[in-house]
Amino acid sequence: MIQLYFSPGACSFVPHVGLEAAKAEFEPKLVKLHRGEQRTAEYLALNPNGQVPVLVVDGKPLTQIVAICDFIDRRYAQAGFLPEDPWQRAQALSRLAWMNSTPHTTMTRWFFPERYAASEAARQEVKQRAAQDFRGYLERLQQMLPASGNPFFDAYAFTLLRWGGFAGIDPHGFAVLKAHVERAMQGEAFKTALARERIALDTYKG
Ligand SMILES: N[C@@H](CCC(=O)N[C@@H](CS)C(=O)NCC(=O)O)C(=O)O
């Protein structure tokens, strides 16, 4: 029995698409981050970090996107998401780890500036600097595209490009990345996850 704790539009979209693409049987469990449901005692018992995603497998929690992707890939090996060759596999995991550690955490600064600075002026500076850094990371992500080719990468790329819209970053400025993501959005697994989370690439308001 598999359950995925997710929140609409959050990074949990990555394993969400992965599970759908693997045609896995799983129970989606909605966590309302804006209501602080990730900080309840019950949830912290699953993930002491107070974050989504959590994959619960036969009652046992697994956290961290990269580890969850590795698990999904091995558990549903027939889907062939990640390369079998050790070097190519490590390279694919390296790209996911970079997305998780670098652009992702940069947007965490933009979403939660109060965790990084006390005054309103300093918080605005944190957000401005985060948005500036994030643009550079989207450039680098775009350059990685020729080496992509698995649903985890595509779902993370979608998530990051969508988050950029909140920070005033127009996805049209990353035409190749946008086209790649929009192609991925046409896949059945993507469509199912997008519909369940009720999200689209529509966060940029110009
Ligand atoms: N490194 C973690 C990052 C998880 C993460 O940043 N989750 C965010 C959503 S994208 C979250 O749950 N934030 C809630 C909070 O910080 O209160 C992972 O790979 O799972």
Q: What can be said about this structure in brief?
A:
This protein is an alpha+beta fold and 206 residues long. The protein has helices spanning 13-21, 41-46, 65-75, 86-101, 103-111, 120-144, 151-166, 175-184, 188-197, and strands at residues 2-6, 27-30, 54-57, 60-63.
> What share of the residues lie within helices?
40-55%
Q: Report the strand count.
A: 4
How do the SSEs run, as a string of H and E?
Answer: EHEHEEHHHHHHH
Number of contiguous helices: 9
Q: Compounds present?
A: glutathione
What are the segments in which pLDDT stays under 50 over at least 5 consecutive residues?
Answer: none
Helix vs. strand class: alpha+beta
Largest sheet: 4 strands, mixed
Strands ordered across the widest β-sheet? 2-1-3-4
* Backbone shape: globular
Report on the structure:
By secondary structure, the chain is of the alpha+beta class. It contains nine helices and four strands. The protein has helices spanning 13-21, 41-46, 65-75, 86-101, 103-111, 120-144, 151-166, 175-184, 188-197; strands spanning 2-6, 27-30, 54-57, 60-63. A four-stranded mixed beta sheet has the order 2-1-3-4, covered by helices on one side. The model has no long low-confidence stretch (mean pLDDT 97). The chain binds glutathione (GSH). The site of glutathione has 13 residues, from loops.
